[in-house]
Amino acid sequence: MKVVIAGVTGLVGEMLLKVLEERNFPVSELIPVASEKSKGQKIVFKNTEHQIVSIEDALNKKPQIAIFSAGSDVSLKYAPLFAENGTFVIDNSSAWRMHPDKKLIIPEINGNLLSEEDKIIANPNCSTIQMLMVLFPLHKKYKIKRIVVSTYQSVTGTGKKAVRQLKDERINIHEEKAYPHRIDLNCIPHCDVFTKNGYTKEEDKLVNETHKILSRDINVSATAVRVPVIGGHSESVNVEFENDFDLETVYKLLEEMPGVTVYDEPENNIYPMPVIAEGKDEVFVGRIRRDFSQANSLNLWITADNLRKGAATNAVQIAELLINKKIIK
Is 284 in the same domain as 228? Predict the structure, then answer.
């Protein structure tokens, strides 16, 4: 199994290597790809050094799987070329998510949709993945009408430059910036770029991807905030259902959902936090309580490691599905 990791030197690329190794994914040949300035450098996978090559060199090797985490421009240009070569491309960028002919996959929710025709498969946004992992079983049971979500997003979602900015600011160094403002001891209500509708692209992703994966009938309102956290994203979610619910059944549905961990004993100070989620593949949900201001409404607090289930782990799970469904022979 020849496997390309494009963007291997980034935070998600590094996590992809870790997850592939942890899950013992059947890699016979790893083909690491990064920008031209990184070409020729070495990375370590399974205690063996591998030399970084150009994306053109990787294309010529005709791999079975290519996992892209190198940005939308690279994905738009090269994913079709790999697909034409017979490679299954799993893309972490936003390039293909809303394309009408490309599937947006969270394996526990809609992995059954994958087929041999799906040569380019989109990985959803990190915030979307953790929210829908929790809401999917509730939507099946009670049918969601409306979601209001506020995110509290780790600097790791921006990349190494943002992590460096936060760490530098904590020792009073103010040099290269990933954000237009200080992030340490601050919250920035600005994730991705602002669009003409007054929302950011990150907020629009939560709306559009929920529509594509769950239902276009769900109204979604989102506010995305960057916080001085390393380790995971958090979300405050208010959800209104068409049908009423009882909390006992809500707990049962969430406890039975693969990949979700109910972490909810507030009387013992037990609730999801980024420090709990960091390094884990589960999506944690807690602070589960009825919203008494609105009929059929529920409040939830959700955290997950955005580099793992929010990106790398979800991508590797898609690759595993391709093998388990015998789509890749």
Answer: yes
* Residue 329 maps to a domain: no
Q: What is the pLDDT along the chain (329 residues), one digit of tens a residue?
A: 999 999 999 999 999 999 999 999 999 999 999 998 899 999 999 999 999 999 999 999 999 999 999 999 999 999 999 999 999 999 999 999 999 999 999 999 999 999 999 999 999 999 999 999 999 999 999 999 999 999 999 999 999 999 999 999 999 999 989 999 999 999 999 999 999 999 999 999 999 999 999 999 999 999 999 999 999 999 999 999 999 999 999 999 999 999 999 999 999 999 999 999 999 999 999 999 999 999 999 999 999 999 999 999 999 999 999 999 999 97
Rounded CA gap, 184 and 228, in Å?
5
Catalytic residue among 50, 139, 191, 233: 233
Cα four-point dihedral sign 255, 257, 261, 263: negative
Edge-to-edge strand order for the sheet containing 103-104? 29-33, 2-6, 65-68, 88-91, 120-122, 103-104
Look up the CATH number of the domain holding residue 140: 3.30.360.10
- The verdict on 62 and 76 lying in the same domain is yes
126 is catalytic: yes
Give strand pairing partners of 2. Answer: 29
> How many structural domains does the chain have?
2
Q: Are residues 300 and 155 in the same domain?
A: yes
Residues 31 and 53 in one domain: yes
Selecting among 50, 126, 139, 191, the annotated active-site residue is: 126
CB within 8 Å of 55: residues ≥ 6 apart: 6, 33, 70, 74, 78
Domain range spanning residue 177? 127-306
Are 19 and 134 members of one domain? Answer: no
Active site residue 187: no
